[in-house]
Specification:
Rossmann fold, alpha/beta, eight-stranded mixed beta sheet, globular, about 270 residues
Length: about 270
Amino acid sequence: MPEAIINGININFKVEGDGEPLVMIMGVASTQKAWYFQTRFFRKHFRVITFDNRGCGESDKPSEPYFIRDMAEDTAGLMNHLGIEKAHILGISMGGMIAQELAINYPEKINKLILGCTFARRIEPGGISADIAKKLGYEGNYSYSDLLSVPVKDIVVALSKLAFNKKINRLFLLPMMKFWIAKMDISGISNQIAAIWEHDAMERLKLINASTLVITGDADRVINPKSSEVLAEMVPDSKLVEYKGGSHAFFVEMRERFNNEVLAFLMKE
């Protein structure tokens, strides 16, 4: 796949299809390959741009700390590299946090915005699900120093276990994901986790002026679904859609419904 030097680091990306640009931003520890079911669908309608965020996949993994704002700058830089003045932006989980920062700081670059299973900040209201603390062995609140005591691969495995609600996916996909996690370069993942921990766009959400679809599963065990309700309340021109029984990976487990929901939103005048 092609590569570009953006903000001093190498970003691995892929462009598929023709039409209006649709930039899709993936979540923590996940590469652009996680968009498999979306790229196959949306490339029939849009020019789809996917990429590996800094810290994972084939993109560079800087050792110094970075923040969600840095990854938003990477996204804006990649759009500039590709000559894209304005695009639809779809962000899932951490990708939704990056999309928030992009929409706040570069409103002129956003056509329509989709924020999936994400939050404006990790503390109440909404935020990170209590199931993560339990899975990592903590009861109630835990500090960032507590989190640092857990091996990064164990955190990624825990997130993977909680991401899927359907038994068939837990039986067949999780072993594959554990194999992938065992082989992955984790050097940048801790920096992504730190960026998520520090993310707070709550008081700036009112600056988002793009038409926005906030979408989530009401049985998300990674991000508290209340987070999406808060986003829909705070983002001025927004619509909330909640999928009953939907997991954090609802865009995979309910992919047909998700894809068509997003397409209808993007096609609506």
